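User: Can you fold this complex?
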Amino acid sequence: MRSLQLGEYVRFWTQFLNFTLYAENTLRCAGVPIGELFRRYTVQHPDFEPVGECVRRWEAGAELPDAWAQGVDSLWRAHRLPEGADALLMEFGAGLGTTDLAGQLSHIAVYRVLGEEKRAAARTDQAAKGKLYPVLGAALGLGLDLLLL
Amino acid sequence: MNRDEAFAQAVRNLTDEWQAALMRLPAYVRASCTEIRLRRERPVAVLWQGQVQFLRDGGRLSDVPVSDCRKVSAAGLERIFQRMCGYSVHSCQHQICAGYLSLPGGHRAGLCGQAVTEQGQIRTVRDISSIVLRIRHRIPEAASEVLRYASPQYYRGVLIAGPPGSGKTTILQALAERMSQPGGFQTAVVDEKGELSGGDAAGVCCDVLYGYPKAEGIQQAVRNLAPQLLICDEVGTQAEFAALAEGMHTGVRIAASVHSDDERSLYVRPVARAMLNSGGFERVVLLEKQPGRIAAVYRVEAKQSEAYGTDFTLCRVYGVGVDAVPAVG
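Assistant: Here's the predicted assembly.
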């Protein structure tokens, strides 16, 4: 179970990095408003929950920054975000749309670097513990079997 | 949309707190309100029927700032600014650098803050200190009086002149709507600030170049859209006039507006003078400070003015001291 979760974390950070790439390209080429950017991304990639959740709340009438913050918070509470993701996503969302284009591109670049660090850490964790947990599970199962026999 | 609805639509661009405060104003104030001025840590001013009053608690107004006047905080003003930008400052950069934001419905926010410059050019504006929310009122009948004396149907160039707040844009809006109906003209509206059309075409035969810088928009309209009538608000620079001049004498009728206080300023203000010297305008409508009221209508004669050294003379055909009988058609 835990090893599966480690895989999920790696996948989450990969999704985040993909989103930052998409955001950077779309802002650079089309300069679309942030709400529209989120909406377009959700249509193409409905599996990245923070953006989808934000769009749902925004379309229900919340202000965009509030929708983002509430969305991240609710996913965090529901344990659907990896450790450290909530703070990083909150800060990332708070900076979106608040500056000119050059500022936005810099902001996204900074969070891509931070996201890459998180993914690297998650991969290291997965490599180190991903095999450990199944082995421990198997050993525990074997021990139990022997005990019962 | 009536005037009260226009007010409600305009204040929806503010935060919930300020929407609620302003919607408590009496209905007759909301219906005649033309501007709301929000200044950092200063009382909020409401301009209605030409008078400025300050907003107090419970939607009451005061002629002078008093202790219970509502003030907008620095954080509140920043939040309003972000909301007006659709939480996307980068999407409005051109407008912010030009000192305004176009809002849904054709309303406009004038901005004031600290300019960030690079090589003498404004790159952005930060620390917003004032926002002037100008409420757009659509008044289709506003053009009727202008059309009586200066219809683009009869004159190939009509210039609407007046001081700020005199209703130039409202009249041009109404002209666009009236002239672009079936049987009228194929009309192109160069709407840099989104005030003329509110982002939508006024009539069925109207093409709107929304958000284009004026000079660029005029050139593109003339070259690509083959309009019969070109409408452009607030021609204020030589570059804009130069673009407009390209369209003159090519069969395109033009209705444009300039800032001008009185007859004299039409002779002396460089852009107004250049426009009238070009021979492209046949009628000038000068507005009073009171919104939508005509002070005078002039025929532009190709005759040297000795007093001002221009190639044109303004001959009053309507208003106090008429020089000639109005000629329509």
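Chain A touches chain B through 17 residues (CB under 8 Å). The mean pLDDT of chain A is 89.
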